[in-house]
Design a protein that fits this description.
This protein is of the alpha+beta class and 282 residues long. The chain has 7 helices and 14 strands.
C-alpha cells in the first residue's frame, strides 16, 4: 500500500551507517512472510508488536525492512522524525553529534540485559525530544526494552497493584521469562499504559495485568490497548485470552465480549476468590 524510506539514510546531510531502512505498509501483515522467498530474512517483531522486521544484505547494500499494516503508530512516528530532521538543520546536527559521541564510547555496542546495544538505547531521549517538537501524539505499544520502560513498569505495578506499603514485587522474575510479555502503551512519547500477558500452552493466553495511568482513563485508551493485545495474539495464532477480573473491572471485560470461562491456571497459582474468571475466544 505504501513504501517509505526512513532512518538516518533518509535524511540528507546526516551521518549514517550503511544500513538502509525501508517501511512497507501492507493490508495483511501475515502476507509479508512471502518476502522470505525473495531473500529477506525474517527476524520477527523484536520490540514492536505488529511490526515485522526483515533484513536482506548483499555486496552493495544492507536493507532493514519494517512491515506494518495501515494505522500502526510506527508509521507516523518514523515519518514525523524523518521530516522534522529534514527541515531543521540544528536538530539534524545535534543528532549527528550525539551519534559520534556515542561511537567514541567503547561500550556502545554492548547489549544491555541481552536486549539492545547502548548505542540504540542512549538515543531514546533525543528521539523523544524531536517527536515532541514535531507534534507526535500517536498511539504505539512496545514490548519493554528500554530501561525507562522497565522503570515505568515497576511504577505501574507498585502504584496500582502492590500498593505503597509493599516493598518488593514478588513477580519481577517474570521480567526475564520467555512466557511472560510485558508491554507498555505510549501516547506520543509518554507511557500511559502497561500490560502483562502470560503465554500458556494449547494456544491460550492470560491477561495478568492491564492498566491505564489514572489521568488518562475514560478516554478509550483501555479499549484500544486491549484490542491491540487481542490483535497481536490472533496474529500469533492464540485462540483465547483469559482474565481473572476484579469486580470493578468486570463490566469493562463484559463490554468487550468476555464471558464466564474457567481460568484453569496451568501453573496452579491460587486465585483470589473475589475475582471472576472470564475469557474471550479470539
Amino acid at each position: 500500500m505504501e513504501i517509505h524510506h526512513i532512518g538516518s539514510t533518509s535524511i540528507p546531510g546526516l551521518a549514517a551507517k550503511q544500513d538502509i531502512d525501508i517501511l512497507c505498509v501492507v493490508d495483511q501483515l501475515a502476507s509479508s512472510l512471502a518476502l522470505q522467498q525473495e531473500g529477506y530474512v525474517f527476524k520477527n517483531e523484536i520490540n514492536i508488536p505488529l511490526r515485522y522486521f526483515f533484513s536482506k544484505n548483499s555486496d552493495f547494500s544492507n536493507v532493514n525492512l519494517h512491515v506494518t499494516e495501515a494505522g500502526h503508530g510506527f508509521i507516523d512516528l518514523n515519518l514525523r522524525f524523518r521530516d522534522y530532521l529534514r527541515r531543521h538543520t540544528d536538530s539534524r546536527q545535534a543528532y549527528q553529534d550525539l551519534k559520534y559521541k556515542l561511537l567514541q564510547d567503547p561500550t556502545s555496542f554492548e547489549r544491555v540485559n541481552g536486549r539492545f546495544p547502548k548505542y540504540t538505547l542512549e538515543k531514546h531521549s533525543f528521539i523523544n525530544s524531536i517527536l515532541d517538537q514535531a507534534g507526535y501524539t500517536g498511539i504505539t505499544f512496545n514490548f519493554c526494552a528500554h530501561y525507562a520502560e522497565w522503570e515505568a513498569v515497576k511504577q505501574f505495578r507498585q502504584i496500582y497493584f502492590f500498593g505503597p506499603m509493599q516493598i518488593d514485587d514478588p513477580y519481577t522474575w517474570t521480567f526475564n521469562h520467555p512466557d511472560h510479555m510485558h508491554l507498555v502503551m505510549y501516547q506520543g512519547t509518554t507511557i500511559i499504559g502497561y500490560a502483562h500477558v502470560q503465554l500458556w500452552k494449547e494456544a491460550r493466553a492470560a491477561l495478568r495485568i492491564i492498566v491505564i495511568r489514572e489521568e488518562n482513563r475514560n478516554q478509550g485508551f483501555g479499549t484500544q490497548f486491549l484490542e491491540l493485545i487481542e490483535k497481536w495474539l490472533r496474529l500469533k495464532n492464540y485462540k483465547s485470552l483469559q482474565v481473572e477480573s476484579s469486580e470493578e473491572a468486570l463490566s469493562f471485560y463484559r463490554k468487550h465480549g468476555y464471558r464466564d470461562m474457567p481460568f484453569n491456571d496451568p501453573d496452579g497459582y491460587e486465585s483470589d476468590p473475589r475475582d471472576t474468571p472470564v475469557g474471550k475466544i479470539l
